[in-house]
Amino acid sequence: MAQFQRLLVVLILTAVLLVVAEAAGDPDTSGCRGLTHGRYSRVFAFGNSLTDTGNAAIYPPTAGGTFTRLPYGQTYFGRPSGRASDGRIITDFLVEELKVPQPTPYLAGSTAADFVNGSNLAIGGSTALEPAFLEARGVTSLVLVSLSNETRWFQNVL
Question: Which PANTHER family is this protein grouped with (predicted)?
Fold first, then answer.
């Protein structure tokens, strides 16, 4: 089990660090393109609660969970933010450093316009491996979302 946990952490950190940011192309002479100030125009984030900025607060099995109530979000946001943290998470810092707008949580969007700034496809409790694979080994999860679901959501956004 420890080996599985290490693999999961490595996969999640890799996904976070790669963040799948889309290059904005050649910037104009001011170094800006649209609303961005750098090389990137949007971010697509994958992962679990380490990168989720609101999907778990919407996903029916976890909606209304503890992270949707105070003290989660109290210190930095002043209100519950849907993050499994009192403050910001790695996605928030990456978006700030890349100088791009915060991506819309996938489950909060409904039109193409909602995803112009990218999308956060991460959902707290998701796994790298398929739920069926885990269930066959006696592991059950409240969140039946895996990395393959997140990549399908990404295809829907595109």
Answer: OS10G0393700 PROTEIN, ZINC FINGER FYVE DOMAIN CONTAINING PROTEIN
Mean pLDDT by 10 residues, the chain (158 residues): 62 54 41 56 94 93 88 90 90 93 95 95 94 92 92 95
Q: Please name the amino acid found at residue 135.
A: E
For 133, list phi and psi in degrees, rounded to 5. Answer: -65, -45
Q: What is the DSSP string of 89-136?
A: -HHHHHHHHHT-PPPEEGGG--SGGGGTTEEE---TT-BSS-HHHHHT
Q: Where are the domains of the chain?
A: 2-56+90-157
Lookup: tokens for 39:
């090389």
Residue appearing with tokens 């992962």: 47
Structure-block tokens of residue 7 = 């693999």
Is residue 67 within 8 Å of residue 56, measured between CB atoms? yes
